[in-house]
Design brief:
Layout lengths: L2 H8 L29 H16 L6 H7 L7 H5 L3 H29 L6 H19 L5 H9 L4 H25 L5 H29 L8 H17 L4 H15 L13
Helix pairs in contact: 1-8, 1-9, 2-3, 2-5, 2-7, 5-6, 5-8, 6-8, 6-10, 7-9, 9-10
């Protein structure tokens, strides 16, 4: 299995609090997707994305998705998908059609240029496609919050579905970044990359929520500035030289591994 998938699958993203809500609290009529202006399949996917984002993957029933998508046929969601997992994969597939394609385009443009590729330009190519879609769809965009619920919830099957549609591009970015950050040992770089990917997911989900909350106020959320700062932070975090403490911890791990002893946490767990 490739390094990215192993590192992402083993990274410790915090579990999101998922609360089961009654159907009366799922969504108001004003928040529902207009099923009349979309195909039945897309209406169901966009409604599911919105409800999963707000209430958690397990907090919404298939019947509620069907109802809030304004589907008169009670079996529409079962006809098009059949299961919760199929709906989730459908959302990833729908978003990958634009997000993954745009990331590949930006990466190809960078690699085709004869000038050296900076760390920041690579990180920007990874993150900015999300900004483009969020600016286009506005407060109705819920993908990042859905992604946070699905990939950081602790369910490995949902994370695998995400990697099925987005893993190839993420692996390419990982390889190109690692080739340019030679001062960080491979084991540490894989860990860093897994951490920053999770950090970006959480950060974009928070920004997306703030865009929606402030859309009707006189102080809209400064999205462009926030995303550019996020790119700055991720670029710095992934490229920072390793500290003497980290180098010492890595050396101890290698020594214990050679001695056939499992590394242990020497610090007491804080309760």
């Amino acid at each position: 299995m490739c390094a990215l998938i192993v590192s992402l699958a083993s990274s410790t993203g915090g579990n999101l609090l998922v609360t089961k809500l009654s159907s009366k609290r799922i969504a108001s009529n004003a928040d529902e997707v207009d099923g009349q202006s979309l195909s039945t399949r897309e209406a169901l996917l966009r409604t599911a994305e919105q409800l999963f984002a707000r209430h958690g993957i397990e907090g919404v029933s298939l019947r509620e998705i069907n109802r809030h998508a304004n589907q008169k046929n009670a079996s529409a969601i079962h006809y098009h998908f059949g299961s919760r997992e199929a709906i989730i994969e459908g959302i990833f597939e729908m978003r990958a059609a634009r997000l993954d394609t745009r990331r590949r385009q930006l990466l190809e443009a960078l690699t085709a240029d004869s000038r050296p590729i900076s760390i920041r330009s690579l990180v920007a190519a990874l993150i900015r496609p999300q900004l483009e879609i969020l600016l286009a769809e506005g407060s109705g965009y819920h993908y990042n919050r859905f992604l946070a619920q699905a990939t950081l919830s602790g369910n490995p099957e949902l994370r695998e579905l995400w990697l099925k549609h987005f893993g190839a591009a993420l692996i390419k970015f990982e390889a190109i970044l690692q080739a340019r950050i030679k001062h960080v040992p491979p084991a540490l770089f894989r860990q860093r990359y897994a951490i920053v990917v999770d950090f970006v997911i959480y950060s974009l989900a928070s920004m997306e929520r703030l865009v929606g909350e402030r859309s009707a106020t006189e102080q809209p959320f400064p999205l462009n500035r926030a995303v550019e700062q996020l790119i700055d932070m991720v670029s710095a975090a992934i490229d920072v030289p390793i500290s003497s403490d980290t180098a010492e911890a890595l050396a101890k791990e290698k020594h214990l591994r050679r001695a056939g002893t499992k590394p242990s946490n020497s610090k007491r767990r804080i309760r």
